[in-house]
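Many introductory courses stop at the sequence. We go one step further.
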Amino acid sequence: MKAILSVSNKTGLIDFARGLADIGVEIYSTGGTHHALDAAGIPAKSISDLTGFPEILDGRVKTLHPAVHGGILARRDIPAHRQELKRQGISPIDLVVVNLYPFVQTVTKPKVTLEDALENIDIGGPTLLRASAKNFPHVLVLVDPDDYAPVLAALKKGKVSQEERRRLAQKAFQHVALYDTAISQYLRGSEDTLPQYMTIGLHKLFDTRYGENPHQKAAFYAEESVLNSKPGGMASAVQLHGKEMSYNNIMDADAAWNAACDFRSPTVVVVKHTNPCGLASHRDLVEAYRRAFAGDPVSAFGGIVALNRRLTLPVAKEISEIFYEVIIAPEYDDDALALLRKKKDLRIIRAAPPAAGREMDYRRVVGGLLVQTRDDIADDQVEVKVVSKRAPTAKETADMCFAWRIAKHIKSNAIVFAKDKQLVGMGAGQPNRVTSVMLAARAAGDKAKGAVLASDAFFPFPDGIETAAAAGITAVIQPGGSIRDKEAIEAADAHGMAMVFTGIRHFKH
């Protein structure tokens, strides 16, 4: 039995190679792998001994040879293939162990040059893997050190099953596909965000118990992208305590964390079913939490809490009085963490802020994906225009900017009532905007008096403004752009309300 070993990641290599040698496998290897085996006292021949040709061009060409690929690709069940190998003096190769040059690790280093990137594009490795995986009924192919021990155990018993060979082949093709995706991303760069053809690289973080419903299977995958090596958010979060995260927990936690990190001042967000039902900013984080909870105490029960500041013991004491599914913060004081851990099932998450402006949004539809850039427009890109007779006060302006930022995190049709940097009422996901206003007014109650309103899109009719005025709203921020804008403005003027247009909407379907 002959094997080729050529790996960049040498984890587990020595023990595996020693095990192969012990059962009589003849090992050939290249470059650094050969040096590592030789240093460990494991008998291994150079690939040049197999090909009869030296490695050339600084190692760029070493395995691209008929003696290698003929030995891999020949089908043992076809007599003509066996005869051809015999005529050419080529021996069959039965095992190929390869993982590829560290391209991703190289190109994500600071100030990496194009030359460095190109030198770390593996050519021979993917060719070996594809050839071996194509002929998996006859050739074992390994790319993952986790597979070394079970394969070695099977070889010692005399046989590796066809099912296992097929699984390893699939893994090899996927390994190459992820590698090619990373190279394509790097060469494309961040400017060409929507190319004609695109692949997405994903690796599984863990299985969830089920999907949105118990009859659905689900898992959480992280995107592998050379354009965003430190994505932050839930994909790189660490769970410090509690039950395993469910599919719905991850969805809600992602919504809560993105909303909290969208504010610069100390902010607490309470999310239920991906919508913020409570949100407040305040220099005192305890007060921010109290105000966020007060936004909708009924909906907060069983929700998700996210804080964009270190969670301290005073905040933990407040939070621990209510049942929540998940808490997310960038850091935790030790005493706060100890208190929260007394709740056995509470999921406690530490996360980094999402990377700004590098990730794409993907939305599955039957037969395809919708792809877009993130809705992360900067404040200085929004030109607010006063369209009412009365200009907003400084306080109304501050609250409108606050409410406008919240609106982009709430499902359309989104309406936000806010006062004193606190979400006091919201309407979400309704088929018409006036119903969202009515729901926000009902949630806010008396707190709507003197509050401002933010709408994620224009008002198609003045009825939404009339309903807001009746609830006590004094100022409105909205994109404008309706053919009935004049009627909406007239309604605001009739009630002495201030109204501003942003010219930009925040739909979140």
